Amino acid sequence: DYISTHHYESPNNFATGPSRDEEFYRELKQIIDDGPNPGIQVYCSEWNAQSTDWRTGLYCGGILNVFERCGEFFKLGGPALFLRHVSASAWDNAFINFDHRTWFPAPNYVVMKLWRDHYAPHRIAVTGDSGKLNVVATRTDSGKTVYLKAVNPSQESINVEIQVAGQAITSSTLRQVAPGSLAARNTLAERDVVRVEVGEIELVDQTVRFTLPPMSCGVATMECE
């Protein structure tokens, strides 16, 4: 029923790795379609970037958007490494890091939780020029809440404008992760260096506008009539 793949990315490829992964999954889908079992689905049973600095957060947002864009045939994604004691001598890329007293979230955990907190089951089309942004838009069952998940892996701020076709937007909010440095990381002593913050966003004449800082991830929420 499933084909299982693994993928561990160099953290230096936080900007380019997700697009290459998407090419791989679509090529794999073509191979499946041409094979004797075209109904088989894709399960990436291990994925991550090999770091616990902010590069792995940017990669996480990018690859989660890829998973959603490939959702017709990509059914499961299993992140690894899940848990790691800070004294371990290898595999320093865990989502949850701990000692005998407490824990801290790595950037991949922070971004994955932000994405999950803004999950909606229906992916909708995105038109227009997204430029350097990696974006996905989804809608809730009611149709009244639309999420735009965006990753800006570039060194420049990017201005974003959104309109929701066929619906009036009544309000909008922005949550973003923008620590300002690729080297930023959480530790047991400083567990909130990489964290979700409220971003500035405005709604003017049914157009939502905000600016994603350099090397950042963000989720814009639009409540609609």
Any idea what the radius of gyration is? Answer: 18 Å
The counted number of beta strands is 15
> What is the helix content?
10-25%
Shape: globular
Number of helices: 3
Concise description?
It is built from 3 helices and 15 strands.
Describe this structure in words.
This protein is of the alpha+beta class and 225 residues long. Helices cover 20% and strands 37% of the residues. It contains three helices and 15 strands. It has a six-stranded antiparallel β-sheet, covered by helices on one side. A three-stranded parallel β-sheet has the order 1-2-3, with helices on one face. Strand 1, helix 1 and strand 2 form a beta-alpha-beta unit. Helix 1 packs parallel to helix 2. The longest helix has 18 residues. The radius of gyration is 18 Å and the shape is globular. The N and C termini lie far apart (40 Å). The mean pLDDT is 96.
